[in-house]
Amino acid sequence: MTDSVIKNKKGVNALVLRLIAYAAMSFGYSTLLTGVHEVDWPTYMLYFSFTIFAFLLIEGIKKTSNKYAYFRRIVLFTVISEIPHDLLICGNWWDVSRQSIMLSILIAFIIVNVVDIIKTRLENMIITLAAAVALCYLGGLACELLNCEISYFGMAIVGIMYISSNVTYSRLLQLICFGLIVLYVAADNYFNIIVDGFYYSFPDKSFAMLGAVVTWFYNGKRGPNNLAVRIFYYAYFPLMLLVIWLIKTYA
Predict the structure, then answer these.
(1) How many domains does the chain have?
(2) How many Cβ atoms are within 10 Å of 37's Cβ, its own excluded?
(3) Is residue 125 included in any domain, yes or no?
(4) Alpha carbons 233 and 177: distance in angstroms, whole number
């Protein structure tokens, strides 16, 4: 495979993409404050955001000079995020019945690095593709067993993003793969809206496809990357959950 990530010079950098994902998640989780749950915005926004995070994760692994430091940061904030996540979602300080999106990102990090090692050492496209599919399946299984918010579908997103980042016509491949997977896995779950008296239904996982479209505007630049920005990258999620929990509990 040859690296052929499409870069749009007039697009947005990685920081802006991350801010878009954070804004979507903030909106989704903030709807828990309303007490109205006819529309599952937290889940829909997780689909949207996770696609962007998967893309940024793969880009970050390619560009980082220290994968071990990257891994340690993800592990640290995965653990930190569980407390505010469990408080907000489960009502307890620690609850293993449902894990945050950070654990799915950690598992995705491991998958991408293992596939990268296979790709580098064997230099065989077929074996790399087979390894990516197998490892994404195992990653989905691990997420399912650990009760992660994003499981098989999330790991499929990671696989699509990884494979498409290494081939030509990556946008077309993403569109086809996301379309097929949304049609396959979303038969029983729909996002329903009423506009001017007309009732519309869309597969709920279509939000992941919208996230993929957002990544097409990536210009290939990391953007600001000093220590404060890197801390913000990881600290925002647990702090956002904590603030929403505090408002929900004490406001």
Answers:
(1) 1
(2) 10
(3) yes
(4) 28
Residue 6 forms part of a structural domain: no
Structure confidence at residue 183 as a pLDDT band (50, 70, 90): low
pLDDT in tens, 157-175: 999 888 888 777 777 777 7
pTM of the model: 0.87
Burial class (CB in 10 A: 0-12, 13-18, 19+), 98: middle
- The conformation of residue 3, written as its DSSP 8-state character, comes to -
At 195, is the secondary structure helix, strand, or coil? strand
**Given the DSSP bridges, would you call strands 198-203 and 190-195 parallel, antiparallel or unpaired?**
antiparallel
Domain span at residue 244 reads 14-250
Q: How many Cα atoms are found within 13 Å in the side-chain-facing hemisphere of 143?
A: 28
Whether 80 maps to a domain, the answer reads yes
- The kind and range of the H/E element at 217 are none
How is 139-193 classified by DSSP, letter by letter?
Answer: HHHHHHHTTBSS-HHHHHHHHHHHHHTTSSSHHHHHHHHHHHHHHHH-TT-EEEE
Residue with token string 């950690």: 106
Q: Are the C-beta atoms of residues 43 and 27 closer than 8 Å to each other?
A: no
Euclidean distance between CA atoms 109 and 123, whole angstroms: 21
At residue 130, the 3 state secondary structure works out as helix
- How many Å apart are CA 131 and CA 104, to the nearest integer? 19
Q: What is the 3-state secondary structure (H, E, C) of 39-79?
A: CCHHHHHHHHHHHHHHHHHHHHHHHCCCHHHHHHHHHHHHH
32, two tokens:
């828990």
Residue 28 domain-assigned (yes or no): yes
DSSP assignment letter at 32: G
